[in-house]
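Kindly draft a polypeptide, keeping tokens residue-aligned:

***
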Amino acid sequence: MHQLRNGRPASERYVPPEQEPLPFESEIEAPPRLARPEDEDEDEDAEGTDPDDEAPTEGKRKRKKKRRRGKPKRRNLDDDTTLPRQTVHCHAPDDQCCPTCGNALSVIGKARSLRVEWVPGHFIIQEFLRDKCACSKHPGEGVLTVPGPTALDRAMCGNGLLARVLVDKFADHLPLNRQAGRMGREGFEVGSNTLSGWVLQASPLAHVLALAVRQQVCEAPALQGDDTGHPVQDGGNGHLRKGRLWVFTDQEQAFYAFTPTKEGVYPAELLKDYAGTMLLVDGGSEFNQAVREHDLERSGCWSHLRTYFWKALPHHPHEADLALGTINDLFMLEREHWGTMVAEEIRARRQEHSKPLVDGFYRWVNGISTTVRPKSPLGAAIRYARNQEGSLRVFLDRGELPMHNNLSELLLRQPVVGRKNWLFSRSEGGAKAAADYFTLIGSCMLQGIDPHAYLVDVLPRVMDHPAHRIHEFTPKSWRLAHKKQGTSEAPRPS
């Protein structure tokens, strides 16, 4: 595009050689600026020295000193007098023995550390006094310090505060900068970068638990699944790329996973350890490869079909109302027996009451399909119904499956609502860590347990627990152990 000057392109402007410069073409003095400290130093050096005396010799050059920003200092909790304090003694167990002679170790001192903890309603500072033990006969074996009951080593947060940050972000959709502001109003000043560091440090613990949840979910005979977008910001240009967040559930627990795209290879990989044979999903083509490779029976979602007819209702009120009436009757029948009967009883009820409605619905669909414009909203609903007829009929013979995929939709609503607050993940690693946290909190919701109480109890004990028994710490196992003990205390799997 040509640059405009006085309303005319520069290429069309003609200035005779003898013409004086116009006022707007003359040089205009730049607006003044405040002198920077570096400029003042250079001016003082230039005025107070002789340039001939200070001329750099060959091979020598003046180097400008760079100002280095100091590393942020860690908050000194000893100087904090605003928060109440609590002392926690960590004693050495009686069976601590010297590896050389087998004698009991002697306590030779205390190791002291401070943590900020959150208890319902306020913050406190916990002072941990941990025993330091050694063998009097073999001092060369070193000093053994009793570990503290905290999930993150060398972090400033206690287990309750860490769990609060995780639940607020991944269950209540509160970004870390808002959490930092709220904590400041409550008397504990902390930066959002510090909170981000805690979330990052706890992610390996969450990943171990998420893998155990995934293993338990894949042992179910039937699964439900769905996916949604999850933007990720990678690189320094600030551009976002489209990622994908998946969820699969056995109606008792759920596992989430992040992938770069929604290609069919990813759900096929996620379900490679699935031991069941039934998969309830929508009509998306991204699940075709998983169904084909793992020989799964695919069931359809009547809620998705109902949505198509809802969209057609303003344009075709009579025909869409007929379809919605029959679909509504199917849902009312499902409400009567789902969750109150075993699978075989549900199948018998569906064969008796629901199957005649489905047969009549498809007779109407096939009859009206030749009279509807294909590109109209009603045509789209009819086309979806005919294309998905086989999968939409599966629920009639499978009492283990619901007739809709609403549970997966609800599970994905959690990260979708959170996405409206924190917008995107800063990296692919952060998106995968978020999927692990959604796995734990979503499974807690399905089990009806408090995710804060679960994380406070489980996270400190994950790394010390035997790897082949990590399944004892999944939300489902945690709830069953708690129910078996019959106490208000946190369960302790044996």
